[in-house]
Write a structure and sequence with these properties.
Elements lengths: L2 H22 E8 L8 E6 L6 H10 L3 E5 H9 L3 H15 L5 H10 L1 H13 L4 E5 L2 H12 L4 H8 L2 E7 L2 H15 L11 H24 L4 E5 L4 H22 L1
Parallel strand pairs: 2-4, 2-5, 5-6
Antiparallel strand pairs: 1-3, 1-4
Length: 258
Amino acid sequence: MTQLEFIAKNWLGRLRTFEYKAHFFVKGVFDYQIENANKSLFIEVVGCPGVGKSTLIDYMEEKRLIKGLIRARLWIARLQRNTNIDSAYKRILDYKLISLENEKSRFKYSQYAITPRAIDKYVEDKKIPTVLLIDEGLFHHFKYEISDNWGKDKTLFSKLMEKRVIVHMTARPEIIAERILKRYRKTGNLLPYYKNKHEYEIAEYCRKAQKKRKKVIGEFEKRGVPVLTVNAEDGEQANTKYIDDFIKILMNDYLGAN
């Protein structure tokens, strides 16, 4: 094999690997590698954009604590019928869409509901304990609709949230702003609400967003949803251990209660 053929074969292999990962693995949904799981849990990682969620998830993948979920499994689950789950998501979307002014926004949030609904069906159908770690899941997109309407549909929302655990990532707003601009300089990507803002303005935006998120998370915690708050500044290694220990404690508590 010539040097040119070797290089071409190497690059073709890389492209195929990338295509395989992009096509078959669901972005932001991972199997959590925990032994002897006795209850299904959805670990929803939340926090301001730029706080370090992706960095933490990359570290957890590297340490083989989580692995990507194959997309085909969720596509199959999405097509399955489940009256309770479909009714719950219809109710959530009804609450959300009434507050949106245009068709584009309504379509966007309808899309946001597809993967969480498929996850619920996937776990319900498996009927064996399954632990998934999720970035930008149901709570991320619909937390205010669920919180504001929980009293109206207590049974529905209690059932929907009973499998969910919230991992709330925080950091000093100044640190988040610094990370956001560093990533922008590297990738050129910047979320619309950060555009044309100075670093101190981004920090102030993050401060208000964190305060608002903390308040609604507190409401969920009062209703029995397990919450773990971690400081991104502690580093990926420490936070990975915090999360792993927290999940194992929840598993042990559940086993003890039964």
